[in-house]
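In response to the reviewer comment on reproducibility (Comment 2.3), we provide here a single inverse folding case reported in full, input and output, so that an independent group could reproduce the run without further information from us. The structure tokens appear first.
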């Protein structure tokens, strides 16, 4: 299994837990909104995963703490890709 596949699986597991636990609630709200907008389950999770990847990158690359405010901001902007 390639590293990218492992990372994607981990990100999708995090999203699954966020949806199940409703934490943060914006993840479920965004998922539901994307589904209503016509995206399928995989596409919706993949877009949410991009927002999560931004946070993981900041933590891993720069040692910055997780920024929930930025994460939520990026979720609310979907389907626009997160740039920050």
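Designed residues, in position order:
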């Amino acid at each position: 299994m390639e590293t990218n596949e492992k990372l994607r699986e981990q990100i999708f597991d995090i999203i699954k837990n966020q949806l199940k636990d409703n934490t943060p609630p914006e993840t479920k709200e965004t998922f539901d909104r994307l589904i209503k907008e016509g995206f399928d389950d995989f596409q919706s999770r993949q877009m949410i995963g991009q927002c999560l990847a931004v946070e993981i990158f900041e933590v891993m690359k720069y040692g910055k703490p997780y920024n929930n405010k930025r994460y939520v901001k990026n979720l609310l902007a979907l389907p626009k890709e997160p740039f920050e």
